[in-house]
From TrEMBL:
Residues 161-287 form the GST C-terminal domain. Pfam families: GST_C_2 (PF13410), GST_N_2 (PF13409). It comes from the Eukaryota. The lineage of its organism: Eukaryota, Fungi, Dikarya, Basidiomycota, Agaricomycotina. InterPro entries: Glutathione-S-Trfase_C-like, Glutathione-S-Trfase_C_sf, Glutathione_S-Trfase, Glutathione_S-Trfase_N, GST_Omega-like_C, GST_Omega/GSH, Thioredoxin-like_sf. This is GST C-terminal domain-containing protein. One of its GO terms (cellular component) is cytoplasm. GO terms for molecular function: glutathione transferase activity.
Length: 439
């Protein structure tokens, strides 16, 4: 069986060859597991390797069997800190030993340990030691080791089925080397030659994935497997981080790979294990704020949560292929309208605002107002014109709803669903044939 034995989790685990290329070190703790309520998982939501374990843990329903502690995304000289050292939303204190850093756990397990202090860490509470810190092995442990403790619906979830193992292993091999680790080879390269070699191998591999997903909803066997989990953690970080931070900028996922983008959003929105295991604030804070060898000034770009992550329609067909849809124009905050549009829409980051028909030339787009799961979108013109309409989007940015406002009062969400949805590129489109329905 082919297995990526160099797979690791902490991106600070940086080793450079003489030619400037990035080499990843080998995991140190590779033990087996027993049954029972004796294990604890330490992770970082910013780390793609650790995120693998979070996803599989939730897919298999192990939340009440294996508890999780999340470290801060702000790494320093001592590695991954816990909340008492580096407070951050969603970060925990170590409930077992009140450790200050992940480093403390490694030294507790082996006082003579001299390797890197990485996540994920699967900890044995009974023996007080690390069971495994290799994500590819932890997810396979989670896939089967606790089945006797799970209901049948979770037992039936097999991410590494016997009939598909050879295909999964073969795909994992090149996805790991050229995509999962490929982004780091490009981002951590210290020579032009090493960077160009890595970035072209990366995009050749993405092209290969695009061809696979053009005819399938999943990577192997047209079903969810560990191959999807392993690729997801890289692709979800690609546009927000790797395009700019690691200079992987030949194409973005949302603009250059429609099949991968559809696959990504369908997995993210339709399976809570993927969405709930993804924390964009942790991701961008760690990469931009901690990797000073790449981003010396630690300036963190403004990136919206769920950037470009509007949901593909239920039939997995791009709305642009449907009759009656027309592309309309996107405007940002404070934009002056230099012509009267039929309709103006929010952009694909779900952060700008929409204004409706009849908005005069010179109107300025205004802010948005949050009411529970809805966001009311109005313009400066709407605020001063009692006959106008506003618009709302649902909390997942999945569709745009027309909201007749009473005197343009932004309170309340009694509206009609107009014919407005998102296409696979995140643009809003208008369906003239839609009559709308009650919200």
């Amino acid at each position: 069986m082919s297995r990526d034995t160099t797979d690791q989790s902490d991106v600070s685990k940086m080793q450079l060859a003489p030619d400037g290329s990035f080499k990843r070190a080998v995991s140190s703790f590779r033990n087996t597991i027993e049954k029972g309520d004796r294990y604890h998982l330490y992770v970082s939501y910013s780390c793609p390797w650790a995120t693998r374990t979070l996803i599989v843990r939730k897919l298999k329903g192990l939340e009440d069997i294996i508890y999780v502690t999340a470290v801060s995304p702000k790494t320093g000289p001592n590695g991954w800190p816990f909340a008492q050292v580096s407070p951050f939303p969603g970060v925990d204190e170590d409930p077992l030993y009140k450790s200050k850093h992940i480093k403390d756990l490694y030294l507790r397990a082996d006082p003579a340990y001299t390797g890197r202090f990485t996540v994920p860490v699967l900890w044995d509470k009974k023996l007080g030691t690390i069971v495994n810190n290799e994500s590819s092995e932890i997810i396979r442990i989670f896939n089967t080791a606790f089945n006797e403790l799970l209901p049948e619906e979770k037992v039936s979830i097999d991410l590494y089925p016997n009939t598909l193992r050879s295909e999964i292993d073969a795909l994992n091999e090149w996805v790991y080397h050229d995509i999962n680790n490929g982004v780091y080879k490009a981002g951590f390269a210290t020579s032009q030659e090493a960077y160009e070699k890595a970035v072209h191998a990366l995009f050749d591999a993405l092209d290969r994935v695009e061809r696979i997903l053009a005819d399938s909803d999943f990577l192997v066997g047209n079903r969810l497997t560990e191959a999807d989990v392993r690729l997801f953690v890289t692709i979800i970080r690609f546009d927000p981080v790797y395009v700019g931070h690691f200079k992987c900028n030949i194409r973005t996922i949302r603009d250059g790979y429609p099949s991968i983008h559809r696959w990504l959003r369908n997995i993210y929105w339709k399976n809570p294990a993927f969405k709930d295991s993804t924390n964009f604030e942790h991701i961008k804070t760690h990469y931009y704020g901690s990797q000073v060898h790449v981003n010396l000034n630690r300036v963190i770009p403004w990136i919206s949560v769920e950037t470009g992550m509007t949901l593909a329609d239920g039939n997995n067909v791009t709305l642009s292929k449907r009759a009656g849809f027309e592309v309309v124009t996107c405007y940002g905050f404070g934009t002056k309208i230099d012509r009267a549009p039929a309709i103006t829409v929010i952009d694909d980051w779900c952060d700008n605002v929409a204004i409706g028909k009849g908005v005069p030339v010179g109107a300025t787009l205004w802010a948005r107002y949050n009411y529970g799961t809805f966001t009311i979108l109005v313009s400066a013109f709407a605020l001063s014109n009692p006959s106008c309409n506003g618009f709302i989007i649902d909390g997942n940015c999945n569709r745009l709803l027309r909201l007749p406002l009473d005197g343009c009062n932004t309170g309340g969400v009694n509206g009609k669903q107009g014919g407005y949805e998102t296409d696979l590129c995140g643009q809003w489109r208008f369906d003239p044939g839609s009559n709308g329905s009650d919200v």
